[in-house]
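Side project, low priority. Logging it here so it doesn't get lost.
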Amino acid sequence: MPHPVQNDTERVGIEALRALAHPLRVQLLEQLGVRQCATASMLARDIGESSGATSYHLRQLARHGLIEEDTERGTARERWWRRRSTGLTLVGHDFMDNPETSGAARIVVEEIHRGMARRLGHWLETARSDWSRPWLESSVDSYQNLRLAPEQLGELVGELYAVIDRYRRLAPGEGAAPVEVQLNAFPKPEPSA
């Protein structure tokens, strides 16, 4: 059964995967998702790296179609970058089975998961001190256990993507802030008798 792909996204190809297989590039792509648009200097401050390094890696991401320059904001001295207007979907399983791409896929997937864990940990540490009661009451930290067949799990993931896509298209409401939705859905081993 093919992995459901989010609407308005394109699957990452082999060359783009190889270009992305660097922890700093994964972090830059994630930070552009938060900022929407930024310069190399802004991103360097965000992730604690030199602007020269971020500039180089941003150009590599653009060269492989993972991001694009925002020419409406840029000047001769300052380049602005943004994520592509169509999103990207990385189906790690497609690359893990191929010996030529498994190493690059592992680097990318592991860095994505490290970033997710870092951001969740930061939220848990700072939520009560940095965020208002409405934000606390709107957030969730939960998991559910279900018993599903592979096809049912695929349907569930597809429906969840559809809901997220619907909210992505909404105009931000008053007081909007960047929000990260983390969803993990996977089979678990049966408990031993």
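Brief comment: Confidence is low (pLDDT under 50) at residues 1-6.
Revisit when time allows.
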